[in-house]
Each structure stands twice: as C-alpha cells, then as structure tokens.
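Let us walk through a complete example step by step. Step one is to write down the protein sequence. Step two is to encode the small molecule, flavin mononucleotide, as a SMILES string so that its atoms and bonds are unambiguous. Step three, shown after the inputs, is the structure prediction itself.
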Amino acid sequence: MPAADHLAEGMNVPDPLELFRAWFVEAEAGEPDLPEAAHLATVSAEGRPSNRVVLTRLREDGTFEFHTNRQSLKGVELARNPHAALTWHWKSLGRQVRVEGAAAMMTDEESDAYWQQRAPGSQISATLSEQSQPVASREELETRHREFESRYGYFPVPRPSHWGGYRVTPLRIEFWAHRDDRLHDRLEFRRDGVGEPWATARLQP
Ligand SMILES: Cc1cc2nc3c(=O)[nH]c(=O)nc-3n(C[C@H](O)[C@H](O)[C@H](O)COP(=O)(O)O)c2cc1C
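Step three: the predicted structure of the complex.
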C-alpha cells in the first residue's frame, strides 16, 4: 500500500500504535537491514543532546523497549533526565517515525527475558564491556573476552546488574512519508498522558 494511503487512513486511526505496528510489518518486509534499529536521543544535565542507534521493540503495553548498559552515557543521561526521543528511518520505504516520551527502567525479570535471547558471545561482551569508557586497545578487549570464556567456560552467562532494558512511554508520535515534489505527509499524534486521548494534526512538510 502506498505511504500516502496509509497516512490518509492514519487520520482515522485513533491509536497511533496500531499505525506503527502496520508500518513496522511493512518495514520488516521492505527494509533489508535492521528495521528495528532507531536513533535514541538523550540530553545531558547541561541540556546538550546526544544520540546513537539502539535496537527497539514495540511492546504489547504500547511502550518502546531497548536494552543497554545503564552505566553508559545514555544510561547516565537518562538517570538524570528521563526524556528521550527515538527515530526510525526506513529508507527503502521512504518513511520516518519519531517518538518522544520518558524512559523508565524495565524490571529485572523483563531484562532477564531479553538477555536470555542474546547470543553467548554478545552476553560476554556486554558483561565485560564498560560501555562508553575508554580502553587502551582492541587487543585488550579481545583478551578480556578470551579470559572470560576460559575462566567461566559455562553458559548461560548471567545478566550483569548494569545491563537492562528501558521502556519509552510515547506522548508524541509522528509519521512521515515521502511524497513527490517535497509535499511529504506528516501526521502527528500527541497526548498529555497514558490513557488520555490522542490529538491528531497534519503537519506541513
Ligand atoms: C545497528 C546498531 C544497533 C545497536 N544496538 C544497540 C543496542 O541495542 N544497545 C546498545 O547499548 N547499543 C547499541 N548499539 C551501539 C550504540 O549505538 C552506542 O554505540 C552504544 O550504546 C554507546 O552509546 P552511548 O555511549 O551514547 O551510551 C547499536 C549500534 C548500531 C549501529
């Protein structure tokens, strides 16, 4: 279905999460690489933004989840200021989705469930990496990885307490679709809080 038709439909969709789900199904089919990858923006205590790519999932409860090292730059920034923004760009479909809201830590049980799906090599790396801290060389990282494997040569690797999930509760979601002559579609959904109705607006491109 052309993007324009979906956005026209979107005007009648009271729940933008349904529209996200529909677009994500199409992204999984049409975007060859990592449709779940999104840019996550956080803000420092001084108000300076930073962003990076994380893997995301829209949960049944309507929040967007990602997993990371809670002592990383993003983790430190979210601890001081939970406001976050996520952007997906599905280039092959000419679509962008933007989500804004506050991020909260997921429970240990939820973080464990995701952790257990990860490959052992990734679990080891996540365990030994002090994400976002300097390291003298690549060799040092590889040595640490090998030592971990030989010292603890067992699986599954337990989830370290510094690694876990966050869920972003959306208060604003914007769908963007490429159209000819730069007359792109932009459909915005806003709400004041969870359970509140979504207000819809078509934005100029
Ligand atoms: C495609 C892709 C997916 C990524 N997924 C994650 C992820 O799910 N979690 C994560 O912590 N870092 C992920 N990263 C690495 C982050 O972009 C980033 O380098 C790292 O989290 C450190 O960010 P920070 O120093 O701003 O906290 C991914 C990078 C790419 C390119």
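Step four is interpretation. The radius of gyration is 19 Å.
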